[in-house]
Amino acid sequence: MAHSEVKLLGWVEVKRDLGKIKFIILRDYKGKIQITIPPTSSSELTSIFNNLSREDVISVSGIVKNTPQAPNGVEIIPKEIKIINKAVSPLPLELTGKIKVELDTRLDYRILDLRTARSNAIFKINNVMLIAIRNFFVENDFMEIHTPKIIASATEGGTELFPVAYFDKEAFLAQSPQLYKEQLTSVFEKVYEIAPVFRAEESNTTRHLSEIVMLDMEAAFKDYNGIMVLCEQLLDRVFKEVINKCQRELEVLKQKIQRPKTPYRRYSYSEIIEILTSNGVKINWGDDIDTFALRKLGELIQEPYFIKDWPTKNKPFYISPCIDHPEVSESFDLMYGWLEIASGGTRIHQKELLINRIKEKGMNPESFDFHLKTFDWGMPPHAGCGIGLARLLMSITGLDNIREAVLFPRDRYRLTP
Ligand code: AMO
């Protein structure tokens, strides 16, 4: 590459004038490079340099030179610099990372914020994670699906739905591809989807958003044990790829991660209640595990782990009760520290039982008619799970707030940018 002529397009990240010699750090999607304007350069180049400010879009044509003292060991000696588009100066957001800026302000100027080393690193890791996930499913013979996001009935309980004005019908934004992914196991057997779902979360927490990207998987002829194995293999793959490919990004985030040993521990819900009780948390069998209890679990168990065999009443209608003791269900949550990353289980594949469960949940089976019909047409036993990708990214990158793990987060108060 040395001595070859190149043309680069990118953004001015730093401009440094040392008198005779002047430097620009040019940034593009792959990284940064030093542009060095030596004392012998034309007055035209100097005047363009003087006119530059941070985040201007420029083109630089010049010669590549090996320079050990330059970052990355190379620099460009420019013949020509053109300003393609100027940015305002000063910019509304501090981008150097030297001054701490509130997350809310960063999100107000998200496109600028994403150019900071920190945010950039988070989404580069996200990209590696997504590639690893897709490769895993391709290698395991899963078919990628896309299910409707405008739907007619709730799956995860009725309170968190966003209504949509849909001509003369009642409709909602999908909370989950649940019913469709289950139906599709009767055709393609093994399916997965990576797509947004919508939840009208009233509460304003650091782990809930109203629009999230969910990774859903569903497989015929498997039960929840098989899905837990797939889930941990998938996570293990993600850890492997992120550790192999994202050392620079992890360093920027000051995050040291090790690939957790598989198999991940499987605790039954009852065992977790015992662990919590013996550590002074007030909780009874049948209670949901609240934030306080989750934080306690996070202190006690640092590796990813499963909580399985939840009380049937705590889980949605489509989760299969255990045959021998139906008050417990074939269900699981995958936890990482204090965060719930995924939940899943064996599904009910017998129509009558499913109708009963819908009624027990206080819902009307008629609104599930389109779904229930498909159980008359050869529905295989099946199981699956849903993984909240932002929560997974949060855990891997060590973020405190899920908003940092989503490009343009949507919550109770934020609808723009
Ligand atoms: P569940 O509702 O538990 O299960 O969601 C699965 C995973 O999605 C993530 N998640 C969220 N992340 C951020 N903000 C939210 N508001 C939010 N809600 C959920 C969590 C959670 O573990 N249909 C089932 C899955 C299945 O059984 O296949 C479902 O949606 O990480």
Q: Would you mind describing this structure in some detail?
A:
This protein is of the alpha+beta class and 417 residues long. It is 30% helix and 26% strand. It is built from 12 helices and 16 strands. The strands form 3 sheets. The protein has an 8-stranded mixed beta sheet. Strands 1-2-3-5-4 form a 5-stranded mixed barrel. Helix 4 (117-139) packs across helix 6 (224-245). It is elongated, with a radius of gyration of 26 Å. The relative contact order is 0.11. Bound molecules: aspartyl-adenosine-5'-monophosphate. Aspartyl-adenosine-5'-monophosphate binds at residues 156, 176, 178, 199, 201, 208-209, 212, 214, 216, 340-345, 384-386, 388, 390-391, 402.
Give the overall shape, derived from the CA principal axes.
elongated
Mean pLDDT comes to 96
Measured as a percent range, the helix fraction is 25-40%
Structural class of the secondary structure composition?
alpha+beta
C-alpha end-to-end distance:
41 Å
Number of helices: 12
- Which ligands appear in the coordinates? aspartyl-adenosine-5'-monophosphate
Protein topology:
Layout: E1 5-17, E2 22-27, E3 32-37, H1 43-51, E4 57-66, E5 74-85, H2 103-108, H3 110-113, H4 117-139, E6 143-144, E7 150-151, E8 163-166, E9 169-173, H5 178-188, E10 190-198, E11 211-220, H6 224-245, H7 247-252, E12 265-268, H8 269-278, H9 291-300, E13 304-308, E14 331-336, E15 339-346, H10 351-360, H11 369-372, E16 382-388, H12 389-397
Parallel strand pairs: 3-5, 6-10, 12-13
Antiparallel strand pairs: 1-2, 1-4, 2-3, 4-5, 7-9, 8-9, 10-11, 11-16, 13-14, 14-15, 15-16
Helix pairs in contact: 4-6
This protein binds aspartyl-adenosine-5'-monophosphate.
Aspartyl-adenosine-5'-monophosphate (AMO) is lined by residues 156, 176, 178, 199, 201, 208-209, 212, 214, 216, 340-345, 384-386, 388, 390-391, 402.
